[in-house]
Amino acid sequence: MTEALLISNLTKTYANNMQALSQVNLSVKQGDFFALLGSNGAGKTTMIGIICSLLNKSSGKVQVLGKDQSQHLNEVKRMIGLMPQEFNFNPFEPIEEILINQAGYYGIDRCTAKAQAKILLKRIELWDKRLDMAKSLSGGMKRRLMLARALIHQPKILILDEPSAGVDVEIRRSMWDFLRELNAQGVTIILTTHYLEEAESLCRNIAILDKGIIIEQTSMKKLLARVSQQVLILESVKRLPNTLPELDFKIELLDDYSIQVVLDEVSISQALNALSVKGIEIEHVRSAQNRLETLFLRLTSRKN
Question: How far is CA 216 from CA 54, 121, 183, 205, 302, in A?
Fold first, then answer.
């Protein structure tokens, strides 16, 4: 299968001799949902800018669906949709016109663009506001408009730079559902985010960028498997006793109905069975830690 994105020895040095990227190699398969993570200043935005032809690289090679960016620039641009972090549309333009005009940059005629805009605006629940000025939208609505604009020319690759920054949980979850739909339809999605639970929930593969260098590229499943310890919050069916039993794992009383357990070599089922023997029946289990965040901090600190 041809890679959706293949980056080889990519380097970017700015005029002040600051090296933002150093010999970066990255591969993203077609149809993947891929997370590109890194702290502020790691080089994520620079890499996205180069992929989308917004920045010139210093050296290296970028291929999109088998096309060399340097040799097929316009074709590569048409295959990519970018949702940037910052709002960069005209706030005094009607929402529908923003999408139609964006489509025009890709040579799409107005009639076709209007039909596509209608589909997208209905899907993101902005159709009733299509004639409103963009400045009238809430922050969450503006995020959804940015996503629709990135999709108006039906790109094969969608790049999302902090897509859910500043939006509430309900809108974030709705956006996640839409992104899963797009990915199921074959759109390759590359996501950068500071919400690490977002990457863990959505993405199958991941690369971690630190100080312009890829320090890890693997599957999400393999990466998370490295976290042997689990910290869980368990909610009891009945009121818990003031004194908890001594078990083969650490246990701490949080409130009358909740305990926190730390599991190393003990599985969740073993812990639940042990608690049941002691008369503590658990009805709900949730994680008390972000496993991906734990790994991210471990990996970046190891490289520094």
Answer: 25, 37, 23, 11, 12
> Is the Cβ–Cβ distance between 183 and 90 less than 8 Å?
no
Q: Which residues lie across from 230 on neighbouring strands?
A: 263
The identity of residue 177, as a single letter, is D
220 shares a domain with 195: yes
- Measured in degrees and rounded to the nearest 5, phi and psi for residue 275 equal -70, -40
Is residue 80 included in any domain, yes or no?
A: yes
Low-confidence ranges of the chain (pLDDT < 70): 1, 227-228, 289-291, 301-304
Closest CA to 171 of 144, 201, 134: 144
pLDDT tens digits, residue range 72-109? Answer: 999 999 999 999 988 999 999 999 999 999 999 999 99
Query: Which CATH number belongs to the domain containing residue 183 in this structure?
Result: 3.40.50.300
Residues 165 and 267 in one domain: no
**Residues 48 and 183 occupy one common structural domain:** yes
Tell me how crowded residue 242 is: count the other CB atoms within 10 A of its CB. 7
Print burial letters for 189-225: b (CB count within 10 Å at least 16), e (below 16): bbbbbebbebbbebbebbbbbbbbbbebbeebeebee
* Tally of domains within the chain: 2
**Tens digit of each residue's pLDDT (9 = 90 or more) over 207-225:** 999 999 999 999 988 887 7
CB contact at 8 A, 231 and 289:
yes
Domain span including residue 251: 230-293
Rg of the chain (C-alpha set): 23
Last residue of a domain, one of 224, 257, 279: 224
